[in-house]
Amino acid sequence: MCAPEQSADDGTVTNSKWVLKARPQGIFDPKKDVAFKTESISNTDLADDEMLVESFMLSGDAFIRTMMDEEAYHGALSLGDTLPAIGYGKVVAAGPKSCHKVGTVVSGMIGAQTYAKIKSGGAFRHITFPFMTPTASLGLMGLTTGLTAYTGVFYVSRRPRKGETVVVTGAAGAVGSVAAQLAKATGARVVGVAGGPKKCQYLVEELKLDGAIDYKNSEKTLEEQITATCPDGIDFIYDNVGGSILDRLLSKINSNGRVVICGAISQYSGNLNKGKVEGPSNYLKLAEVGAEMKGFNVMQYMARVPLALCGMFYYFIRGKVRMTEHIEVGIQSFPHALAKMFSGGSNGHIGKMLVKVRSNLPK
Ligand SMILES: NC(=O)c1ccc[n+]([C@@H]2O[C@H](COP(=O)([O-])OP(=O)(O)OC[C@H]3O[C@@H](n4cnc5c(N)ncnc54)[C@H](OP(=O)(O)O)[C@@H]3O)[C@@H](O)[C@H]2O)c1
């Protein structure tokens, strides 16, 4: 039963938020595509089952960009809509039929804003994990990040085995860095693909991968780097990027190889919307060697989430997996943080992109 709740105070709050101003043409441009708005929200505006949540921390996710397109893969935003963002924050006011009390920290689809008016059923009590920071619920233990990596490595296809060669694309990012560490924990040789020397150094020196491929390297071709780092071919590809990088990797896939399609971030800047997805033109290689390719959406594996959480915690405690966090500060920084995810390279982030909504808020 929902207990009736009182508002934390009877005043109004000023909500600052990012809304979609125009549909991006190609690469997302914060200056052209979004607008910063403020509005007053009164506690008395809340419906009985609504609550007002003060945002603490927001997650940068690739799906936010695809939702800006008209024919979006995850459902489209309308012009003027608040940008979606998963996050957590504190309930500061609650209607009488809200399931959450004032003062509770909740997680859910808060949006790129400082205060969110949301249905109480649309959020759940924020989970913290032993020995981890509260941000783990968005990163290592988050559905769209660590658990996506776990699902793609262990549940979608035959998992990597000791002695096999695994290649992870987008390997210095949130999902990719966890997928690479989990694959390494199976005993496989793991090679990561990332943009720029700094990220490649991170893969080899921090994550202890067996090799790194810099797809932005102008001196060595992708083919040369793949041959050098994967001399025995590739048994398992965890792909976050798609396009020409996937195509090049497919040419080295081994017999009984598995290709797990997690995402295709190289295609999100308008190609999905216009039906011009690039590649893979090398897909016949799958037939030639008897390899398989399978895509997944983590939502299709919800029943395995409890198991994945336990598994991830086991690897974390054993020191096999961790998440580097990149935290931008201030709601103003939200679209710039998002843009960084699509420009990548040396100006980009490593690990999980997070936005701490205000500098004086708890982590
Ligand atoms: N299947 C699912 O259920 C599911 C759930 C969540 C996320 N995903 C997918 O997982 C992937 C990674 O998401 P994330 O949140 O972890 O983001 P992320 O990897 O932290 O950030 C994106 C990274 O992609 C790379 N990138 C951007 N544009 C690129 C391009 N044109 N070519 C090659 N690399 C490019 C950049 O790294 P570089 O500097 O290395 O270029 C950037 O850091 C995305 O494809 C996303 O859609 C799938």
From TrEMBL:
InterPro entries: ADH-like_C (IPR013149), ADH_N_2 (IPR041694), ER (IPR020843), GroES-like_sf (IPR011032), MDR_fam (IPR045010), NAD(P)-bd_dom_sf (IPR036291). Residues 26-355 form the Enoyl reductase (ER) domain. GO terms for molecular function: oxidoreductase activity, acting on the CH-CH group of donors, NAD or NADP as acceptor. The keyword Oxidoreductase applies. Keywords: Oxidoreductase. PANTHER family: ALCOHOL DEHYDROGENASE, ZINC-CONTAINING (AFU_ORTHOLOGUE AFUA_7G04530) (PTHR43205:SF42), PROSTAGLANDIN REDUCTASE (PTHR43205). This is Enoyl reductase (ER) domain-containing protein. It comes from Thalassiosira oceanica.
